[in-house]
Design brief:
Oligomer: single chain
Order of helices and strands: HHHHHH
Number of strands: 0
């Protein structure tokens, strides 16, 4: 069972990583996973929350930081060392199949911390802002998805790594949004 799941994961990885290769994705998708590319968005969220929501905005930013910290701690510090799955770009059996689009890194693959963190943040923001701004649902999910998909395309994660990261992040985002709803100032 596990072998067939791993085989499916490798085949799907290669279909995305090699089969979807094109110059546009080669340019765009490495950007999508780059934290500096998204820095203006993060800065906008902080400024928007502080200006628009004042004290409540500080709670939102604080819980966003807790959400990110939880995602990173659970994915990178707890699960990855326990599972110890090698990244596809470091897997010796795939060495001839990998297209080097970004540096591989030496860390483990399962689950994707990028997927975990971005789905956690997206879900948290969706639950905080959905009542006032409905488009945050498709925009937030699309944002987290493209970052997760990019991880597969550039060759640093298998599809199951990002799917589990997305599920883990969604769970974390749900938990932290519930905590936020309980502790937020009633303004």
């Amino acid at each position: 069972m596990i072998e067939s799941l791993q085989q499916f994961d490798v085949e799907l990885f290669l279909k995305i990583h090699r089969g979807m290769a094109n110059p546009f994705f080669d340019w765009l998708l490495p950007l999508m996973r780059n934290r500096y590319f998204w820095a203006p968005l993060y800065l906008f969220i902080v400024i928007f929350c502080m200006i628009e929501y004042k004290k409540k905005g500080a709670y939102i930013i604080g819980m966003l930081l807790v959400t990110f910290a939880m995602g990173d701690l659970i994915a990178s510090r707890l699960i990855k060392p326990l599972v110890g799955r090698i990244r596809p770009c470091n897997e010796v059996t795939l060495i001839d199949e990998i297209i080097r689009r970004v540096p591989c890194g030496s860390g483990y693959s399962f689950p994707s911390a990028h997927a975990t963190n971005h789905f956690a943040i997206a879900v948290f923001l969706i639950f905080v802002f959905y009542d006032k701004w409905k488009p945050i649902l498709p925009i937030g999910l699309a944002w987290a998805f493209i970052i997760s998909f990019s991880q597969i395309y550039v060759g640093v994660h298998y599809p199951i790594d990002t799917m589990v990261g997305a599920l883990l992040g969604t769970t974390i985002g749900l938990i932290t949004s519930k905590i936020y709803k309980k502790i937020q100032p009633q303004l």
